[in-house]
Amino acid sequence: DGGITQSPKYLFRKEGQNVTLSCEQNLNHDAMYWYRQDPGQGLRLIYYSQIVNDFQKGDIAEGYSVSREKKESFPLTVTSAQKNPTAFYLCASSIFADGGTEAFFGQGTRLTVV
Amino acid sequence: SQQGEEDPQALSIQEGENATMNCSYKTSINNLQWYRQNSGRGLVHLILIRSNEREKHSGRLRVTLDTSKKSSSLLITASRAADTASYFCATPPSGGYQKVTFGTGTKLQVIP
Predict the structure, then answer these.
(1) What 8-state DSSP symbol labels residue A84?
(2) Residues B44-78, buried b or exposed e (16+ Cβ, 10 A)?
(3) B96–A98: do the CB atoms touch at under 8 Å?
(4) Residue-level pLDDT at A1
(5) Is any Cβ of chain B less than 8 angstroms from the Cβ of A47?
(6) I need a labelling partner for A101 at 20 to 30 A (CA). Which of A62, A114, B58, B101 fits?
(7) Is A45–B93 a contact, with Cβ atoms under 8 angstroms apart?
(8) What pLDDT, in 10s, does the model give residues B38-82?
(9) Cβ pair B101:A45 closer than 8 A
């Protein structure tokens, strides 16, 4: 089955820890995205990548980092510099980054700071 | 980045009724996309309408696009309890590479 997989579904982080959220796609898509969603809010773009070994900051990149070493993988690290990381994180991919086609989303990772 | 704005923020209807929600945007677009999000899940793509199209149908969904008013509407006919979800529009701007962003959505509740 083709799709986009996020893991884990739930993640707990202690204060001062870095954590990494996984996102893998087997759709052969060039573009991948990370969004953050807070309760009752829309999606805010954290980082996006048009192609392997390239990524750009979105609207709320501070306290986050990404890598794109393989086409199918786009992990997101939430660093200790992110002061309010508790949120629902969504990864998405699309064939190209031009917005000309639909995006496919993973099922999300809910991150909680304990 | 451009963000679509959905209206109303919340909508509650009885099963079998039609539901209409709207999306407005500010700059020119390549296409407009509608997505559904069930509680605690990822977004699912519903329909994409291109800037040169005025209306598009998919099953019980009907989408219209008015580029002169920079607005779109999504109509769900004969709603079902399973349609209960949040609905988002995405409005990629036209002219080269741009990133897609999402608004706050319309939360639809269909009462059985």
Answers:
(1) -
(2) ebbbbbeeeeeebeeeebbbbbeeeebbbbbebee
(3) yes
(4) 58
(5) no
(6) A62
(7) no
(8) 999 999 999 999 999 999 999 999 999 999 999 999 999 999 999
(9) yes
